Amino acid sequence: MHVCPQIAMAVRQSDADIIHAHNYHSFPLFFAALGVGDRKFVVTTHYHGESTSSLRNRLLSLYRPFGRWAVRRADEVIAVSEWESEQLATDFDVDATVIQNGVDGERFAQAQPIERGRPYLLTVGRLVEYKGVQHVIRAMVELPEYDLLVAGSGPYQEVLMQIARENGVENRVNFLGYVDEEELPGLYAGADVYVTMSEFEAYGMTVAEALAAGTPCVVREVGGLRDWIEIEGVLGLRDISSQAIAQTIKSQTDTQVSSHNPNSWLNVTNQLIQTIYDLE
């Protein structure tokens, strides 16, 4: 639903007291802003500022005046990470409230690890180029003791499978496709290390899920992912060469993470309620 102008009329005709719109990078937020009228308007931007596509970057540049108006139309702007808050201040001169995405901590902490014959690394997400799974696959050459499980589907899968074949690791890279929500916690809990080399993330929900399951993480130190390196059990790296990724993963394999880490993403409900009260 990237383009859905009917949202403007639906919002205008609703009897809601508060309108909460999401995602700067898609038009429904803009159409909600057109229809909000004099109701309280909350915007969660999920903003990462740019795209891996030069065409999309040009479109984002053209959209900037409209997106800026929609964001600044809000009574309250919510960012899901400190990094995103800084980007909003720089790009739109907006003072956002940081409310990190919530995770059902008990669901992941109580998960039974899946059993496999070999230890494995895990990456979860849509299979598109910017998610960086290709870098992890190439690093598997340096990690012969591990399999890599790739949970998710997307248009880049065929390229990723070809990269695995070219690097001689196709027998140790398993593409799981879509994984049911009930199975996902056990998948996290059974992994030795969770890895994401994504280029653009406003937050990094999969990192939160992995930590809740007690699994250490290796992340690319860019965008919203950089906030995670301050958390116990997370290592970041800027060098995404195969050797650097493999070395960082090896340094994480003996890490123990408390699955009940008392980070603010477990208190998201109270933060959101307070934000709404502040609007009154």
Would you kindly provide a written description of the structure presented here, covering whatever features stand out?
With 280 residues, the protein is an alpha/beta fold. The chain has two domains: 6-100 and 267-279, Rossmann fold, CATH 3.40.50; 105-252, Rossmann fold, CATH 3.40.50.2000. Helices cover 38% and strands 15% of the residues. The chain is built from eleven helices and ten strands. The strands form two sheets. Strands 7-6-5-8-9-10 form a six-stranded parallel sheet, with helices on both faces. A four-stranded parallel sheet has the order 1-2-3-4. Helix 2 links the parallel strand 1 (18-22) and strand 2 (40-44). Helix 2 (28-35) runs parallel beside helix 3 and helix 6 (133-139) crosses helix 10. It is elongated and about 60 Å long. The protein starts with 5 loop residues before the first helix and ends with a helix. Residues 260-267 have low confidence and may be disordered.
Secondary-structure map:
Layout: H1 6-13, E1 18-22, H2 28-35, E2 40-44, H3 54-72, E3 76-79, H4 82-92, E4 97-98, H5 105-109, E5 120-124, H6 133-139, E6 147-151, H7 157-166, E7 173-177, H8 184-190, E8 193-196, H9 205-212, E9 217-220, E10 234-237, H10 242-252, H11 268-279
Parallel strand pairs: 1-2, 2-3, 3-4, 5-6, 5-8, 6-7, 8-9, 9-10
Helix pairs in contact: 1-2, 2-3, 6-10
CATH topology of the largest domain: Rossmann fold
Tally of individual domains: 2
Shape: elongated
Measured by DSSP, the beta-strand proportion falls in 15-25%
Nearest-integer average pLDDT: 90
Helix content: 25-40%
Class based on secondary structure composition and strand pairing: alpha/beta
Order of helices and strands: HEHEHEHEHEHEHEHEHEEHH
CATH class value of the largest domain: Alpha Beta
Radius of gyration based on Cα positions:
20 Å
Uncertain stretches of 5 or more adjacent residues:
260-267
Q: Specify the CATH homologous superfamily of the largest domain.
A: Glycogen Phosphorylase B
Q: Biggest sheet, strands in spatial order?
A: 7-6-5-8-9-10
